[in-house]
Design brief:
399 residues; alpha/beta; 5-stranded mixed sheet; 15 helices; globular
Amino acid sequence: METPGSQTSLHRANLERVVRAVRMAGSLTQAEIARSTGLSAATVSNIVRELKDGGTVEVTPTSAGGRRARSVSLSGDAGIVIGVDFGHTHLRVAVGNLAHQVLAEEAEPLDVDASSAEGFDRAETLVNRLVEATGIGPGKIIGVGLGVPGPIDVESGTLGSTAILPGWTGINPSDELSGRLGVPVYVDNDANLGALGELVWGSGRGVKDLAYIKVASGVGAGLVIDGQIYRGPGGTAGEIGHITLDESGPVCRCGNRGCLETFAAARYVLPLLRPSHGDGLTMEKVVRLAREGDPGCRRVVADVGRHIGSGVANLCNLLNPSRVVLGGDLAEAGELVLGPIRESVSRYAIPSAARQLSVAPGALGGRAEVLGALALVLSEMGDSTLLGSALPAGAPAFT
């Protein structure tokens, strides 16, 4: 029988540390594995050799700092993960492998607010089509990450605000999609997944404390503290859109007045331009016109940036993040919106917190949330199926 502290137990723990490090990063050199796990170079070399012989990892030549090195990634045929992103107006699905390679991806328009049943029907169809297109059998699916545009109640697993998605009242998204696909489904709100996507693949790489701000039909923030998504005990952390900017301001959909969302979200901002620009405006079009020099659109984009900056200043004073990443269509405005955000932060945040903060546009655009959904599965999945072939005969797998 295995005992804690035994050589077998220690070996298993080291195997797990290496696999987890590679799984979260996608690929690492052996030197990087040693630094991230605290294991010696010799131990890492032996473990990598063992995992390679067992088919768990693949090793390819690379270079690091001008020197030859070996890049370690999980085997491409070890399994696949799926990301599903429900936006208010779209559905996006991606299929990836454990080496962080996206194998297939597709998006289509969808009115998510109208009907949860239709949304899940469309998601099931699209997932099955993309998995079939990869040529990988459905038995290789390890799990699905699912993003929804609203807060998830941690205890019940249901959407926490019926005002945001009234057609989803009482729906447990994880149970619904898991029942259709027959695999584990991990759910989070879209802002958290955007933060996770940028943390793993985009503008947040190498940063341990950041806030991802998504401005679309609403305004939300995904918070990363010490490298981990912070959700709060009820799952509603990051609802920056409901910070009060003006107690006498417009009535927000949450019932309060003057929330940040009423000054920055598309549903409130676009009507400001209707008298001068007509109907049919989208935030994407406003940003494009602003970049082309349209004075009205430039003014609106700058005002939105200043209001967002006020919310970011509050985050700086409370959490002191080192980076804020702006996502959504608004990020395409570049300095037209980032400059005003920085101005407000400089004005309203504690000087020491403002000096330490960098504000950057998201690198992933509209893909941030679906890539974050893939990353969610990679972070939540266990290692037992991956380590089984690397363990001695008769040894139980990790739990």
